[in-house]
C-alpha cells in the first residue's frame, strides 16, 4: 500500500468560497483511477499556529496507481488550482 498525504496553507486573500471549491474538487478525485483504496479531505479544526488549512490523505494499491493518479487530467487541474491559492504546500508519499 502507498499513502499520499498533502496539506495546503492558503493565502490570506483566498475566500471561503474558493477554499470550499478546492475541497470539493479534491473530494471528486476519489474514483478517477482504479486502485484508489481511500481518499479523505478535510479542513483543519485546531487552527494552531503551525497548522495548515486543509489536508488530503489517500491510500493506493501500489505505486503504479499513484503514478496514474498523478498524471490524470482531473488531478492535474486540481493541482493547478491548489498552486494558485496556496501560500505553501507540503506532502509525503510512503509505502507501508
Describe the structure.
The protein has 96 residues and is of the alpha+beta class. The protein has helices at 16-27, 63-71, 73-85, and strands spanning 2-10, 36-43, 54-60, 86-95. Strands 2-3-1-4 form a 4-stranded antiparallel beta sheet. The longest helix is centred in the C-terminal third of the chain and has 13 residues, at 73-85. The N and C termini lie close together (6 Å). The mean pLDDT is 97.
Query: What is the succession of H and E elements?
Result: EHEEHHE
Query: Largest beta sheet, briefly?
Result: 4 strands, antiparallel
β-strand amount: 35-45%
Strand order of the largest sheet: 2-3-1-4
Terminal CA distance: 6 Å
How large is the radius of gyration?
13 Å
On the 0 to 100 scale, the average pLDDT is: 97
Which features does this protein show?
single chain; 96 residues; 35% helix; four-stranded antiparallel β-sheet; globular
Amino acid at each position: 500500500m502507498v499513502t499520499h498525504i498533502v496539506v495546503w496553507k492558503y493565502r490570506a486573500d483566498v475566500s471561503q468560497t474558493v477554499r470550499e471549491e478546492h475541497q470539493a474538487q479534491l473530494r471528486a478525485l476519489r474514483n478517477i483511477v482504479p486502485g484508489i483504496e481511500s481518499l479523505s479531505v478535510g479542513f483543519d479544526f485546531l487552527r494552531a499556529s503551525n497548522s495548515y488549512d486543509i489536508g488530503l490523505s489517500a491510500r493506493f494499491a501500489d505505486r503504479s496507481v499513484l503514478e496514474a493518479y498523478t498524471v490524470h487530467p482531473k488531478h492535474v487541474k486540481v493541482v493547478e488550482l491548489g498552486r494558485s491559492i496556496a501560500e505553501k504546500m507540503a506532502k509525503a508519499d510512503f509505502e507501508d
